[in-house]
Amino acid sequence: MGGGRRRVLLLFLLLWAAWGGIFAAEALGVNWGTRASHPLPADIVVRLLKDNGIKKVKLFEADPMALSALGDSGIEVMVGIPNDLLAPLAGGVRAAEDWVQQNVSAYVSKYGTDIRYVAVGNEPFLTTYNGMFTQTTFPALQNIQAALIKAGLGKQVKATVPLNADVYETATGLPSGGDFRPEIRTLMVSIIKFLINNGAPLTINIYPFLSLYADPNFPLDYAFFAGAANPIVDGSITYTNVFDANYDTLVSALEKNGFPNAEVIIGEVGWPTDGDKNANLQYARRFNQGLLDKLSRGQGSPKRSRPPETYLFGLIDEDAKSVAPGNFERHWGIFNYDGTIKYPLNLGSGRSLVAGKGVRYLDRQWCVLSPDASDADSNLAQNVGEACTYADCTSLGLGSSCGGLDARGNVSYAFNMYYQTANQQKGACQFSNLSVITRTDPSRDGCRFEIMIDTGRHEKVRSPASSSGAATVRDSRIGIIFLVVLLGLGILRGMRI
C-alpha cells in the first residue's frame, strides 16, 4: 500500500474512532434520582455530570434545586411527572398549563435550563398496578403536549411516557413474536400515533438484571453483552444477550402495529451493586461497561443497527427509595451516595469516571456496638429493629456487601446507619447504652460503614429506643423485615426479645 493510501486509511480510522466517541457522548444520558436522606448538593451533581462528559439527564420529578442548577450547563434535561399527578393533569388542560408554566417555562426562561422532554408518568402500565393509570396516562400526555405548544415550547420540548418493557410480550418466546399486551394494545397504538404526530419518541425501560433476579434458572452470561454460551436463534438472527432480544421484541411489536420507524429512547437501563446476590460491583461493571462499549461502537440491535438514545440508571445511590421491588433498589448508582466512584468505567475516547468534587462530610466517627455490651441483652434486638426502620440496612441482606459480617458487626452496622442518617446528633448513638462512638473506621471485607454528607440540615432527633413508629414516613416495615431476617439467620442468636 502506498504512503498516500496509508495516510488516507489512517485518517479514516481516526475519524471513525472520533465519530464513535462523539456518538457515544450524544447517545448516553443518566437518571438522576433524589430519594436520599442526604442528597448530594445539586451544584456538585451538575459538576459531576460535566466532568464526566454526560450531556443528558433524566429527572423523575421537577426538583427545583436540580432544575435551577442545570441552567446554562449545556446538559439536556428530561423532567418527570410522578404517577400521582396523572389524574389531575388528565382532568383538564388548565392543570397541565399550570404545571408546564411552573416546571418547564419558568426554568427555561429564568435559568436557561435546556429541557427537551417531559416524561409523563413513570411506568404507569406496570401489570402490578392493575390498570390504575390506564385511563389517565394518555389524557395527561395529550394535555401536557397541548400546554407545551401553548407555552411556545412545542418544537423544543416533547412529551413522552417512560414505559416498562412489560408493555410488550412474545407468545413464541422469540423477538420476532413481539406484540403489545392484548389489554393495552389499542391504548399503546393510540399513544404511539400521538407521539409520532408530535415528533416525540417512545420511551422504554429495559432491565436485564430483573430477568436474572426473577428467574433463578436464567442463564447468567445471557444477561451481559458478551454472552455467547446461551444464544437464542430467531430465524436468521442469533441473539447473544437479553438486552438486544428485549429491544427487538419491542421493534417487532412496533412493526406489527404499523410503526416500523418509530423513534425509541431507552429511559432506564443499568445494574445494581448491592442488595442481592447478583447485585455486586463485578457484575455492575461488566454490564455497564458492555453497554458503554456498545454505544461507543455505534452498535444497535440486529433489527436496528443504530443504537437508541440511552439513559443509564442511575447516577447516584438513593438510600430513601422504596424497597418494594427488592433491596437492590437503593443501589443502582454508578457513584456512591456521595459522588465517589464505585468501580472503574471507560467512558470512551480514553475517559474514565471522575468523582464528585467539593463534598462536605460529617465528622469521621462511627456509632458501633460497645465492646462491653452483652449478646444476651434483652434490648439489643429491639434497638436493631428500630435502627433499620429509620435508616437503610439493605446492605445486610444475604449475598449483599455486608452480608458476611458476624453478629456484632451486623448490630454495629445498623447502629451506625441510624447515627449517620440522624446527622450524628447527640443522643443518636445511645441505643439503651449498648453503643459507643469510635473514630476507628469499622469498615471491612468490602462492607462500607458510611459517614454521611454534611447537608447543613441538623434536625433534632430522638433516640431510637424512645421513637414513635409514626414519627417517620419511611417504610417502617424495613426494620421489622430486617429484624426477622437477622433472627432467621441467627445473627441475633442468643439475644432475648
UniProtKB/TrEMBL annotation:
GO terms for biological process: carbohydrate metabolic process; defense response. InterPro entries: GH, Glyco_hydro_17, Glyco_hydro_17_plant, X8. GO terms for cellular component: plasma membrane; side of membrane. Its EC number is 3.2.1.39. SUPFAM superfamilies: (Trans)glycosidases. It is a lipid-anchor; GPI-anchor. It comes from Aristolochia fimbriata. Its main location: membrane. Keywords: Cell membrane, Disulfide bond, Glycoprotein, Glycosidase, GPI-anchor, Hydrolase, Lipoprotein, Membrane, Plant defense, Signal, Transmembrane, Transmembrane helix. This is glucan endo-1,3-beta-D-glucosidase. Residues 365-449 form the X8 domain. It is found in: Cell membrane. It catalyses: Hydrolysis of (1->3)-beta-D-glucosidic linkages in (1->3)-beta-D-glucans. It is an enzyme of class 3 (hydrolase).
